[in-house]
Design goal:
The complex is a heterodimer. By secondary structure, chain A is of the alpha+beta class. In chain A, about 65% of the residues lie in helices and about 10% in strands. Chain A contains 17 helices and six strands. In chain A, strands 1, 2, 3, 4, 5 and 6 form a six-stranded antiparallel beta sheet that branches. Chain A is elongated. Chain B is of the alpha/beta class. In chain B, strands 6-7-8-3-9-10 form a six-stranded mixed beta sheet, sandwiched between helices. In chain B, strands 2-1-4-5 form a four-stranded antiparallel beta sheet, with helices on one face. In chain B, helix 6 links the parallel strand 7 and strand 8. The chains are: A alpha+beta, B alpha/beta.
C-alpha cells in the first residue's frame, strides 16, 4: 500500500459527507461533529492499491469522488464479491470488526479518488459513548453490507458489536445511578453551588456589611448560623435541641399522611374523570368550583368540621394536594394516544384490561408530575394550617417565633422547611423515575 | 432452536366479504360520503393489497373492517358472520406505531395472549419463535423508543401474529421508513406471509410495494371510495426484489396499475390534491423510462 498522506479536513465538509453516507445518515448533529473530528482526507491516483486482502484493517473509508474497485476475497463467501465503489460508498468496514484484524478485500483505485478515512477503533469509541445512536449506525452498516455484498458471517459479527455497545447499557436502578454520575460530570452541580453562594453571599453583604435600610431588622446569616449550630441557643431552638427535630418530624408526619391520602383518593378520581365522559360531566363542575378556593379560606370550616386540631391540619394539608393529583391524573388519561387504546381492543382486551394495562401505565408520567406538585403544595398548605391551628411543626415555629420576636428562629424554620420540602420532592421524582424506566429512556433519547 | 420444533398453531384463514358498504361523516345536510357502495372480497389465504391515492378513504375502510365503526349501509361479513366490533380474529397493524411505550419488546408481543389469559408454554415458545423470526432476539428487553423505525414495525408484526388471527389487516405499515429499510421490510413481511399462508389485507399508496407483495391488487377510486379495478398479480412466490425488477409480468402489472391510478389522480388533480400531483409525477417518470 503506497503511503498516502492523511490530510485534515474541515468539520463542516466532513459532516456534509457523513450525512450523505448511508450508515451515518440518521446520526444527530453533535455526534456527527465528534465523528467528523476523527476523520482525515486522502487522495489516490488511478492504479494505486489502497490495501490488499490480509493487510491490517485500521481505517474505514468513504468515497467522496473517483472510483475504487473492491474485491472481497473468496473465503468471505460473499454473494457479490466484486463491486465498483463511487461517491457515498463506504468500504474497509473490517476496521469495525474486532474478530477481523485483517482486510477481507482488495481495494484498487481505478479513477483518481478523494476518500475520507476514519480509524475504526476511534470510531467505535465514539459510538460506544452513545450506545443508542451507535446501535443505529451499526445496524445500518449491517443493512448496507447485506444489500451490497450479502455476507452473512460479517453481519452476525456486526450484530455482536451491537450487543457490546449495549453491554454497558444502564438497567433497572442503575439508570438512576447512571444519571447521578452523568450529572456530576455536567456543569449543573457546580452552577448550582455558585448560585447558592451568590444567594448566601448577598444575604451576608446586604444585612451585615452594607446594612441596607430594608434589611436592618433582619437577622444576619452569621447570627442565624451561630444560633442554629449552638449547643445553647439564645432563643431555644438549634440542631442540639430535641424540640427542633420534634417540629420537623411532626411536620413530615402530617405531610406524609396528607400526601398519601391525597394520592389514594386523587389518582383514582383523576383516572375515572379522564376515562368516563359521564363521570366527568357529573363531577368536574363541582371539582373546578372547589379547586381555586385558597387554603386559608378553608381554615374556619376545617376547624368547625374537625373537632381535633390534628385532623383539621391534615385536612387542610390534604386539600390542595388532592386537587393537584386528581387534575394531573385526569390530564394524563386524556393525553394517551388513542392508537394504544385501539390496539389494546384489537388484541382482545376488555374494558377493564384497557383501563389497567393502557390507561394506568399511559398516564403515569402525568400522575408523577401531579405527585411532585402535590408534595410541594402539601408543604405550602401545611405551613398555612400550622400557623392557624397547631401545637408543633415548622409552620408553628415560624408563627410563634414571630409573635415572640425570635427572628433568627424564624429563619431557621424557613430554611429547614425549604430543605425538607426539597428532599421530599426529590424522593417523589426518584420514585417516579424508578417506576417509569421506559419514560426515562424516551427522554434520554429525545435529549440527544 | 430449530424452527421445525416449534409447535405452531394451525392457521385458520378467514375470508371477508364487503357488500354494498357506504359510510358518511358529518351532520345530515353537510355529510361527506367517504365510502360509497363498496364491494369486494378479501379472499381466503391470499395477500390482497388495496392501493389508491392518499386521502381516498382507505383508512375509513380499515376502521370498518376492524370493527371500530359500523357501515351506514351494506354489510361486512367474516366467513358469513357480520362484524360487530373489534376482535382478535381481525388484527389491525395501524399506520402509527401503537407499541405500548411502557412495555418491553417481549411484553408487547405477549400483550394479546396475556390480556385474554391464554398464556401457555406453547404461547411462550411461539413468542420466542416470532421474536427470532423478526430478528429482535437481542432487543427483547428494550423499550419501543430504543428500537429503530423498522424494528418497531417488525415488533408490531410479531405482536399481531402471536394472536394467530384469521386475517391480518395492515394499514400502510411501512410508511415513513427510509427507502432501504422499507425494501428490507417488504422481504421480511412477504416471507412471513408465505410461511403462514394466512389471509392478509394490506393497504398502501406505494405502487412498488403493492406489486411486490400482492396476490390480488384492488385499485380504489378517489372519494367516495369504490373498487375501480382488480388485478391478479400472478408472479410466482417466493419473490425477491431483484427478480421483480426484471420480471416482465410484474412490470406489466405495474404499468397497468399506474395507468388506472393516473386517471384517478387526474380526476382529483383539479381539486388540488398534493397526493394526486405526486402520482402524476411518478407516472410521468415511469412512462419516460418505459
Amino acid at each position: 500500500m503506497p503511503q498516502q498522506d492523511k490530510q485534515p479536513i474541515s468539520p463542516d465538509m466532513m459532516i456534509g459527507i457523513l450525512k450523505a453516507t448511508m450508515p451515518f445518515q440518521v446520526v444527530s448533529e453533535p455526534l456527527l461533529r465528534r465523528i467528523a473530528a476523527i476523520g482525515w482526507k486522502t487522495t489516490f491516483r488511478a492504479g494505486d492499491t489502497l490495501y490488499e486482502a490480509g493487510g491490517p484493517a485500521d481505517d474505514l473509508f468513504i468515497v467522496v469522488a473517483g472510483k475504487i474497485d473492491h474485491e472481497l476475497q473468496p473465503g468471505v463467501h460473499a454473494r457479490r464479491p466484486m463491486k465498483t465503489l463511487v461517491e457515498g460508498d463506504v468500504f474497509g468496514w473490517a476496521a469495525l470488526l474486532e474478530k477481523v484484524p485483517n482486510r477481507l478485500a482488495k481495494a484498487v483505485c481505478t479513477e483518481d479518488a478523494l476518500v475520507i478515512r476514519i480509524n475504526g477503533e476511534e470510531l467505535l469509541k465514539v459510538l460506544e459513548s452513545d450506545p443508542n445512536a451507535g446501535d443505529v449506525v451499526m445496524s445500518r452498516f449491517a443493512t448496507m453490507i447485506t444489500r451490497d455484498y450479502t455476507v452473512p458471517d460479517l453481519i452476525a459479527q456486526l450484530r455482536g458489536i451491537h450487543r457490546k455497545l449495549h453491554a454497558r447499557d444502564p438497567q433497572g436502578m442503575n439508570v438512576t445511578l447512571y444519571r447521578v454520575s452523568r450529572w456530576l460530570k455536567s456543569p449543573k452541580p457546580y452552577l448550582m453551588l455558585i448560585g447558592l453562594s451568590i444567594f448566601f453571599g448577598g444575604w451576608y453583604l446586604f444585612v451585615e456589611v452594607l446594612r441596607l435600610p430594608r434589611f436592618r431588622e433582619m437577622p444576619g446569616i452569621t447570627t442565624v448560623v451561630a444560633e442554629w449550630m449552638s449547643p445553647n441557643p439564645t432563643y431555644g431552638l438549634s440542631i442540639y435541641t430535641g424540640e427542633y427535630y420534634q417540629h420537623i418530624l411532626v411536620s413530615i408526619w402530617r405531610v406524609t399522611q396528607a400526601f398519601f391520602l391525597a394520592t389514594a383518593l386523587g389518582v383514582p378520581l383523576g383516572l375515572f374523570l379522564g376515562w368516563s365522559r359521564k363521570f366527568k360531566d357529573l363531577v368536574f363542575p363541582v371539582f373546578e368550583t372547589l379547586r381555586p378556593i385558597p387554603i386559608l379560606a378553608w381554615v374556619p370550616i376545617a376547624i368547625v368540621m374537625f373537632v381535633a386540631t390534628e385532623s383539621a391540619v391534615i385536612f387542610l394539608t390534604f386539600l390542595a394536594s388532592f386537587f393537584a393529583t386528581a387534575l394531573n391524573t385526569m390530564l394524563g388519561v386524556e393525553s394517551i394516544d388513542e392508537s394504544y387504546v385501539r390496539a389494546a381492543y384489537c388484541l382482545g382486551s376488555n374494558e377493564r384490561q384497557v383501563f389497567l394495562h393502557v390507561i394506568v401505565p399511559g398516564s403515569l408520567p402525568f400522575i408523577f408530575t401531579g405527585l411532585q406538585i402535590s408534595v410541594g403544595v402539601a408543604w405550602f398548605s401545611l405551613v398555612a394550617a400550622e400557623m392557624v391551628s397547631g401545637q408543633y411543626g415548622l409552620g408553628y415555629v415560624i408563627n410563634t417565633s414571630y409573635t415572640t420576636v425570635k427572628y433568627p428562629t424564624i429563619i431557621i424554620g424557613m430554611i429547614t422547611l425549604g430543605a425538607v420540602g426539597y428532599v421530599t420532592s426529590a424522593m417523589v421524582r426518584v420514585a417516579g423515575d424508578y417506576m417509569m424506566q421506559w419514560r426515562l429512556r424516551e427522554l434520554a433519547m429525545g435529549a440527544n | 432452536m430449530s424452527e421445525n420444533h416449534v409447535p405452531r398453531p394451525v392457521v385458520a384463514s378467514g375470508e371477508i366479504a364487503v357488500r354494498g358498504v357506504s359510510k358518511s361523516y358529518g351532520e345530515a345536510h353537510l355529510a361527506r360520503e367517504v365510502v360509497k357502495d363498496c364491494d369486494f372480497t378479501i379472499e381466503r389465504g391470499k395477500l390482497t393489497v388495496m392501493i389508491g391515492p392518499s386521502g381516498c378513504g382507505k383508512s375509513t375502510l380499515i376502521r370498518l373492517l376492524a370493527g371500530f365503526e359500523m357501515p351506514d349501509k351494506g354489510s361486512i361479513l367474516l366467513d358469513g358472520q357480520p362484524i360487530t366490533g373489534p376482535s382478535r380474529d381481525r388484527l389491525v397493524v395501524f399506520q402509527e406505531t401503537a407499541l405500548f411505550p411502557w412495555l418491553t419488546t417481549w411484553d408487547n408481543i405477549l400483550y394479546g395472549p396475556r390480556a385474554r389469559g391464554e398464556v401457555t408454554p406453547q404461547t411462550l415458545e411461539f413468542a420466542e419463535f416470532l421474536l427470532n423470526k423478526v430478528g429482535l432476539r437481542e432487543f427483547r428487553h428494550k423499550y419501543p423508543t430504543q428500537l429503530s423505525g423498522g424494528m418497531q414495525r417488525r415488533a408490531e408484526l410479531a405482536r399481531a401474529m402471536i394472536n394467530n388471527p384469521q386475517i391480518m389487516i395492515l394499514d400502510e405499515p411501512f410508511r415513513g421508513l427510509d427507502a432501504m429499510t422499507k425494501e428490507l421490510m417488504w422481504e421480511y413481511y412477504a416471507n412471513l406471509y408465505e410461511e403462514s399462508g394466512r389471509t392478509n389485507f394490506f393497504v398502501t399508496t406505494d405502487i412498488d410495494e403493492a406489486v411486490f407483495l400482492a396476490d390480488r391488487m384492488l385499485i380504489m377510486t378517489n372519494i367516495p371510495t369504490q373498487v375501480r379495478a382488480v388485478i391478479e398479480v400472478d408472479v410466482p412466490r417466493p419473490r425477491r426484489l431483484a427478480d421483480m425488477v426484471t420480471s416482465d409480468r410484474a412490470n406489466a402489472v405495474k404499468m397497468e396499475a399506474l395507468a388506472i391510478l393516473h386517471e384517478e389522480a387526474m380526476k382529483s388533480f383539479s381539486r388540488g390534491s398534493k397526493a394526486a400531483a405526486d402520482f402524476v409525477e411518478a407516472y410521468a417518470r415511469r412512462s419516460a423510462k418505459a
